[in-house]
Amino acid sequence: MGRKIRWRTGSGQMDHEVIEAPTPHILIESRKELHGWWRGKRECTSERLLINPYNGCSIDCFCCYAKALPGYFQLFRQHQVVTVCRDFDQVVSRQLDDLLVASCGYLSPVTDPFQPVEKRYRLSEKIIGEFVQRNIPIEFITKSHFRPEVVQLLRRQKHSFGQISILTPRENLRRRLMAGGATTDELFGNLHRLAKAGIHAVCRIDPIIPHVTDDAADLFRLARRARDCGARHIVASIMDIPRRLAAEIFRHLSTLGDGLVYRAKNLYRELIDGSLHADLDYRRAVFSRLREECDRLGLTFALCMEYRLEKSRPVGLNAEFMSSVNCEGIDIPVYVRSGDQFQPASDCDGACLTCQVPRCGIQDLAMGRPEAARRDFYLRDYRRWSCEVLAQTSHQKGLNIWDSVPER
Ligand code: SF4
Ligand code: SF4
Hints:
The protein has helices at residues 72-79, 88-97, 118-121, 123-133, 148-154, 171-177, 184-196, 216-228, 246-256, 260-267, 280-297, 318-321, 379-397, and strands spanning 4-9, 12-17, 25-28, 48-51, 54-55, 82-85, 101-102, 104-107, 138-142, 161-165, 200-208, 233-238, 241-242, 268-272, 275-278, 300-303, 307-310, 313-316, 335-338, 341-344. It is of the alpha/beta class. It has one domain (28-352): TIM Barrel (Alpha-Beta Barrel).
């Protein structure tokens, strides 16, 4: 008998068997629904369907904000046990079958989709397959190596792409920032594998850690090597410190160099939505230098979740620094079903956040209209849009509303 762990969630307390290989994890049943970007200060220009087959991440970056999240994320933070949603690809598959409108899938906002447990369950790879077989785009962000099969799947869907997160070009330093993850050479190799297959490849320097990875020459070297490997776009941010994690983050910083904690405490003076942010002038200086270098290298550039306060309200910094239309450097419209496959709903640039004319036919999505609000969307919204789109189509073509939905 393996060891058991007792864990309390919203639905009560349960004993779980811990499976030790390849990293300690438990299996749970989950009916989690696909959903859009989180409520709040959204800066992401294009719609996504967010998917987390795993909770907790054994790459274990010292500054990972997901460790501040509740529920099974705390199981990892306290016990280093990852939670795996059993057969989650099938849960996703059933949800996609009920939709006539879908946006690009996103693996995964709060874990690494190719962390070691993926070797055992292949949930991320299977989920990519579910999207691609329906011709719905999907993207991922990773600090891990992934199988060649993933590249083969992505190249079958023209808007699918990959983002590789590289914090430093120095392998010795990378190993001190996280417990796992692919080597620096493997990460640049990931960019090369994607680009060579004709897939949009993004390099994320996300986050830059003040006084640790912010050396300008290092950042330029990283961007140049990413460009040479085929990346076309850079996404950057500066590390935030969730107040809940401040003690852990400062403890780790103290192992990285003398005086770092003192310097960080002087720099992190702005509190936005429960997280400490580095001084705005410092952030602007780092972003200006990096944007200029990306311009020089022929790369587009954007920020992720960077804000300043204006009359106590967070305002995104992308308006000052982004050189692409969409923050991930690729233009992807929403898709609509056509038989058992999906197709782009329009030939738009997919920047719903600033869109004023919803050529896709979905009014809610065009958040650039004067009367529209910035909002987050749920599976129920996608279902509602599906009904609207189908009603329009059936009205135009005299079709039966559910003819194009596959039978289970
Ligand atoms: S790879 Fe991403 S999700 Fe995993 S620990 Fe690092 S920052 Fe967190
Ligand atoms: S037409 Fe506008 S709202 Fe519709 S997918 Fe394109 S950018 Fe988004």
